[in-house]
Amino acid sequence: MLNGRTVAAILVIGTCVVGAAFAQGQQQTLEEDWNDFLHYTMIGRLDLAKGYAQAILQGNPDPVALFELVQQNPQGYDFAMKVAETARDEELAKVTQQLLGVIDQGRFARRTDPKIIVEEVRRLGGTPRGKLIAIQRLRDAGEYSVPFLLDAMAETMRDPAAKNELAAMIEALPQIGQPAIRPLAAALQMNNEQVNAEIIRALGQIGYPQALPYLKYVAENSQSAELRALAAESLRKIDPRAVNTPAAALFFQLAEKHYYHNESLNPPEDVPIANIWFWDGSANRLARVEVAREYFHELMCMRCCEWSLKAQEQFGVAIGLWLAAFFKAESAGVPMPEYFGQEHANALVYATTAGPEYLHQALARAVNDRNPPVALGAVEALATTAGERSLMYTLGPSQPLLQALSFPDRAVRYSAAIAIASAGPRQPFPESGVVVQNLAEAVTPRAQETAALPTEQWTAEMADSYALRAAQAMLKLATGRNPVIDLSLAQPALVGATKSTRQEIQTLAGQVLAYINNANAQRAIAEMAMNTANDVNVCVAAFESLVCSAKLSGNLLPDPAVNAIYELISKPDTDPALRAAAAAAYGALNLPSQKVKNLILDQAKS
Fold first, then answer.
1. DSSP states of 81-107 as a string?
2. Tens of pLDDT, residues 337-395
3. Confidence (pTM)
4. Which residue(s) pair with 289 in the sheet?
5. Fold observed for domain 132-252+267-303
6. How far is CA 537 from CA 154, 506, 549, in A?
7. Which of 162, 200, 325, 447 has its CA 20 to 30 A from that of 548?
8. Residue 161, exposed/middle/buried by CB under 10 A (0-12, 13-18, 19+)?
9. Which of 96-105, 182-191, 542-551, 566-575 has the lowest mean pLDDT?
10. Strand pairing partners for 285?
C-alpha cells in the first residue's frame, strides 16, 4: 500500500483534471490522458483510471513521447510500477503493465537513437560538465554507442588538431562497461592499429573475463609487436593466468559459458531482442544483426567455437560443442538469423558431415545435460552415417550412444536403438537387451497411446514413424541373422503388432516373427494370415512370412491351424492371390503325405 506522503506527492505532480472530459468523450492530449490515469488511480476511481489507460493504448501512442512524459514526472512512473505489481484490480494491473511496456519501448528507442548518440559523442569535447553528461548517456546507450565512438575516434585520429576530442573519446570508451565488450571484440578485426590499441586498452580497463579470448588471439596472431604487447598487458589486468592459456581454449571456455546461459553474458534485459556484432570490412565499420533472445547464447556459442577453430584448427572439441549449440538453437523454434543466409544448411547436414567422433562429443554433452533436442539430433546423425565401430565409440569412461538407450526422452531412446540395430553389430555388448527392449516398445501400441512426459515432444505422428522405423530395423537384424541382438525378446511386442491398424506394421511384424524359432511366433503369423478382418494384401504378406518361417523352423502349427489353411485353399471363392499364397505356405509346412493326398483327391473329378 502507498502511504499518505506518496499520495500527496502524486496528487501534486499529477494533473488534477475533472473526469468530465473523459466521460463526455472529448479528445485529450497524450499528456492529459497520462496524468488523468495517474490521478484517478490515486484517488481510487479505478473505472476512470482504466478508461484513460485504455484510451492511451488505443491511441497507439508514440513510445518516445510517452517516455518523455515519464522523464518529466518520475514519481508518476514509480507509482505506475507499484500499480502494475500490487493493484487488486486485475484489469487495471494488466493495462498498466501494457503502458509500462510502451514506456520501455520509448526508453530503448531514445537511448539507441543514432542521432542522439552522435550528438553525445560530439559533446565529449565540450565543457567538463557536458562531457560527464555525454559519458553517462553513452553508457546508457551501451553497446549501441560503440560503433559511433569508434567511427569518431578513427576520424579524429586523422586530425592532429583534435587531440582533446580524441582524449575524451578514449576516456569514454571503457566507461561504457561490459555491454561494450562484444562490439569492441568484433572491431578488433579492423585494419587500424591506432584504434585497435585503444580497444585493447579499453577491454583491459573494463576488466571482464569474456574479453580474454579475443585479447589472447591478438597476442598470438597480430603482426604488430605493439598490439601483441598491449594485449598481453590487458590480459594480465583481467586474469594473469590467461597469459599462458591458448586462445583456442579460452574461446572454448567462453563458448561453454554461453551454451549454459551464464547470466553474466546475458544481453540487456530491458529489450526484447539481442545483438550479434560483426566487423564489416567493405564498410570498414561495425555491423549489428538483431537476433531472438531465445537462441542468442547458442549463436554466440557457435561463434566462439568458430573462433576457437580459427585460433587452432585441430581444436576438435569445439566442433562437438558447435554441433550441440546448433541443434540447441534449432530447438528454440525460431527461424535462423539473417546472417545465416537462405542457403545455409541445417544442423543435421553439418552433423552428418562432421563424423562420429564429434557427434559423440555432442551426444555425451546432451546425455549428461538431459537435453532431448541435442541428443536426438546427434543420434539421428549417427544413425545416418555411422557403422558398428563408430557407434560403439568410447569417449572417456563412457559410450554415449549406449547411454542414450536409457535417456528419459523416448524419441532419443528409440533413435539410439534404431541406430545400433541398423548398424548390425557383430560383437557382443551388455546393452544388447536394452536395444531390443526399446525396439519392442516402439512397435507396441502402448507407445502410441502413452501420454508424453512434460519434457517430451511426443506426437501420434512421431509414434507412427518410430514404430515403422523400429520394425524395419528389426527386420534388418532378422534377415542378417544378427548373432548379438536376440529378437526373441521382442516376440510379445511383435505378436501384438500383427494386430496393428497399420498394414505396414502388421506386415513387418510378420516378417520379423518368421525368423524367430518359436511356435507362438509362427502361430501369430498364421492367425494374421487367416484373419478375415485384415486386408487381403496383409493376409498374402502373412502367408509369405509363414513360408519363410516354415523353411527356417519347420511346421510348428497345431492341426486346427493347418486345417484352417487347407479349408481356405479348398474354397472355390477364395481370392486367387490369397489361395496361391496359402498354398505356398501349406506346401512349405512340409506336411505328412496324408494331408497332401486329401487335397489332391478333394479336387479330383472322378
1. HHHHHH-S-HHHHHHHHHHHHHHHHHH
2. 999 988 899 999 999 998 888 999 999 999 999 999 999 999 999 888 766 666 766 65
3. 0.81
4. 276
5. Leucine-rich Repeat Variant (1.25.10)
6. 78, 11, 18
7. 447
8. exposed
9. 96-105
10. 280
